[in-house]
Design a protein that fits this description.
Two copies of one chain form a homodimer. By secondary structure, chain A is of the alpha/beta class. The first copy, chain A, folds into two domains: 70 residues, Arc Repressor Mutant, subunit A, CATH 1.10.10; 113 residues, NAD(P)-binding Rossmann-like Domain (Rossmann fold), CATH 3.40.50.720. Chain A contains nine helices and nine strands. In chain A, the strands form two sheets. In chain A, strands 5-6-4-3-7-8-9 form a seven-stranded mixed sheet. A two-stranded antiparallel sheet of chain A has the order 1-2. In chain A, helix 8 links the parallel strand 7 and strand 8. In chain A, helix 2 packs across helix 3. In chain A, 40% of the residues are buried. At the A-B interface, helix 1, helix 5, helix 6, strand 9 and helix 9 of A face helix 1, helix 5, helix 6, strand 9 and helix 9 of B.
């Protein structure tokens, strides 16, 4: 969003942060006390200058010859990523993908706090997926202002992505994570993150089938 | 891979293909017979010239004033994506993410045919996740040459991603889809697709927490 430019961290930097954290946590478990930027860079197949630049966004800087202290850097990364702050989140569309995401511990570790999930399928009403209750989408209306719902995750069929987005934005959501295959249009001030589970698979399969063609005599 | 350059379709084009297919299938269900590039572009928030260029990678071209015929274009996209060809695939690491991916119908629709899943946890041995049997990783050795295993999906803990990659490459795998947070190094001729479930979430949460800071007086 434009109005956040003053505190914007570059997206590629953000995207690398979970890998830094994962690597630092590994070092911590191994009992390592210090690590240098070049060592991190080698492990994660990155450039050492880039690593130092990325990590400078946390409050921690490495010291010459000593490098970074592992434990404080782990905490600085967790703080930078706000991992200890719970973010109430609502999921729409409890199909195969929606169910999987609700049960995925990794998202919970990063702060997502599933308040409820919604699906119009009456057979799902009142069911629980993991620990999350499934409700009819109409229930969101009553719930949204009460909990100050800001984050909605859309796993609905593509053709209802837009009406679902309109509905949640109407009830105060300003951050949409859209897993459906259609883009959604939102008013200014609403942030949409589009994620496709298929895009990387399609690239891999294209290369695979391409190779097969070439292998043929 | 370098040796595929002669038949390489640009990655951004490939990544858009599932959305085209989803939209065309929607039109087909609605009974629409024809659609123009500008109409597709509008629905998917793309540029019409780009749409025409992307779709030209299938064998189908649109006709002036008529546009594309919907049904043949659906089939051309399916053919282009080789969706009717089953690709034997093996998953390593049956944790929360691995289990979710095994049960995700979307990947099956795109051609992934799960032959088996592997996890060293003895409590999982012989279990089924969905319809897929979980075996000890050692079993891959006997199975790989028999079925001509080419595709491995890694959902293992980051610290064992590299040894798992080395192992599967040693037994003939040439396409690795790596969901672990550490990159894997592979010999020339092996294609790796790196996917992080966290990267988009981290961007979204960063913008969210950034906005909160600004909202404070």
């Amino acid at each position: 969003m434009d109005d956040n430019s003053s505190i914007t961290v570059p997206e590629p930097t953000l995207r690398r942060m979970p890998s830094y954290l994962e690597y630092l946590k590994l070092l911590e478990r191994r009992g390592d006390k210090h690590v240098s930027a070049p060592t991190i860079a080698k492990a994660l197949d990155l450039d050492a200058t880039q690593v130092a630049k990325d990590l400078a966004y946390t409050s921690i800087t490495g010291r010459t010859r000593v490098g970074y202290e592992v434990a404080p850097l782990v905490q600085a990364l967790r703080d930078f990523l706000h991992m200890d702050q719970r973010v109430p989140a609502f999921l729409f569309g409890v199909g195969k993908l929606g169910s999987a995401l609700l049960q995925y511990q990794g998202f919970v570790d990063f702060g997502l706090d599933w308040v409820a999930a919604f699906d119009p399928d009456e057979r799902l009403a009142g069911c629980r997926v993991g620990e999350v209750e499934v409700l009819h989408p109409d229930a969101f209306r009553a719930m949204a202002p009460e909990v100050g719902a800001k984050v909605a995750v859309l796993c609905v069929p593509a053709e209802v992505a837009q009406i679902t987005a309109d509905m949640v934005v109407g009830w105060g959501v300003t951050f949409i994570w859209n897993f459906s295959l259609f883009p959604v249009k939102v008013p200014k001030g609403v942030f949409v993150q589009q994620t496709s589970m298929y895009s990387n698979l399609v690239v891999l399969l294209n290369r695979l089938h391409g190779q097969k063609l070439e292998d043929q005599p």
